[in-house]
Design a protein that fits this description.
heterotrimer, A mainly alpha (212), B alpha+beta (214), C mainly alpha (192), B: 214 residues, alpha+beta, two-stranded parallel sheet, 4 helices, C: 192 residues, 9 helices
Chain lengths: 212, 214, 192
Amino acid sequence: MSQDNGPSPWTVLAAGLWRENPIFALVIGLCPTMAVTNTVTNALVMGVATLVVLVGSSTLVSALRKVTPGPVRITIYIIIIATFVSAVDWALAALLPAAHKQLGAFISLIVVNCIILGRAEAFAARNAVWPAVLDALGMSLGFTLAMLMISAPREILGSGTLLGHPLFGPRFEPWVIMVLPPGGFLTMATELAILAWWRQRLAARRAPAEAT
Amino acid sequence: MSGPEPTSAKLVGTLTLAGLLSGLVLVGVFQATKPLIAANRAAAMQAAVTRVVPGAVQAASYERVGDKVQPSKVEVGAASDKPMAYAGLDKDGRVLGFAIPAEGPGFMDTIRLLYGYVPGKGTVIGMEVLDSRETPGLGDKIIKDADFVGNFKQLDSKPEIVGKKKGTKSKPNEIDFITGATISSKAVVKILNGSTAQWAQPLTTAAPPAGGKP
Amino acid sequence: MDDLVWIFANASVINNFTLAYFLGLCPFFGVTNRIETAFRLGLANLFVLVITSLSATLLDRYVLVHAPYLQLISYIVVIAGTVQFVEMAIKKLSPALFRALGIFLPLITTNCAILGLALFQSSKGYGLVQGLVYATGAGAGLTLAMVIMAGLREEIELAPISKLLRGVALNFFVAGVLSLAFMGFAGLFAKG
């Protein structure tokens, strides 16, 4: 991906969304994914916060890639990322105190989300600013998409609501376990298994086609 | 990342520059958001105080030093290294009661709550859970269950608060537990008993806030 | 004293860092193939957690009271620095211990459990002793979770399970069941 006439912008953006989805394909950046997906609102706020940090830090890392000395590059990336995360943390506390209270320390923990440092090192540091921004956008949208896919079943089944609006009548008995930590693991496990089945089916369908 | 190996001086220089720039950005954003964050926190605590001390319209900070309670300069809701309480004041500045934050082990994690208290009489006049991770649908009834929260509107804390099975309370110092959330209910009672024991005596020494009437 | 017992129990089993807060999932899924490795990595984590707790307390007390905006950056830098320093010290002082922990130490720097501990400890307002107990509890909890996970995975290797489920999905199912089991510790110290 490091050639000058690299892949088209759309490919870069789409890679993060699905084929190289950080959660479902690469299985990284799990801590926030599991911890804040008990409601869709939390997942959305977390997704937007990650998007801001990832796009911001990727842009800077890419813009500075020619003047960043190799031996200290990781330290510089971490300084850049931590600066963005601190800023986002305070901005949330100032503007959306309720959401900030819900997410608590997990906003600060974006710093150690492997997706951010991983994209800085693997993509932004080797590409021009424009592709780096697209890559960051794709990755963070993919991350948000994955978190929505996990949080939606958890909130719907676990509290009987979606974005806080009740979905079922009063006779619905919520599956409380879904909004508790085990529900996070079990939802993720189920979705990973469904994806594995889906990929296997696709592969099986493609194999005979290629043989002929 | 290519070319000759950079010198140490250049490395140190780059890092220092990065640190300086990041420091500048941080200080800027911090200073810009700080007043808003403090205002949010103060507003949240002010509102909670007016809910647990019925009739109060504003709050004033107090801190406990040894066995004395004195007015504090720390803003309402801000962190302090001393135990804090907030006087609930009516519109003339009279102290109607104290809102005291307290915490202790709950079913899942630490429960933080705020309760309204009238010193001297030793009456609890309101209770609100500020922060808890109790089980949704069961333990979190300590926040949502109107009957349970209603227990704390006029509750004698002397000699101590006693919890009873739902529907069997008979004395002014007894409360009804929540069916299905006994442990969380017990936790709340334990936190209140522990906290009132610490505050009851010192609070009687509290002077009225500056400019207010006793 | 009660307080310290609660802090320890809370950090280790009631709200296990991995199974309830989802911190440190990378090593939890990544290096739990064998009990032996899991146990050693757990101990290395415990060690780094205790040191982090100490440095975070010192930072809170002497630096961050004057410059609160440096919290995140200073935690990260100090954690990375301490881990590197400890690594060098162990290499010099005890080559045997270094061989046992060595390769895992750099991995730990990027473990969210470590930064999580520093942040939680400071937001809960723990002092020096409380912080150390909290860190020990968290480390013990991480080790326990990883060793149990490794034990289960060693057994599962031999079980006849559909190929579809093998791998990541199965690990998450096992983790979910473990997390469920650990919920049984809830209410441990709440009975008055």
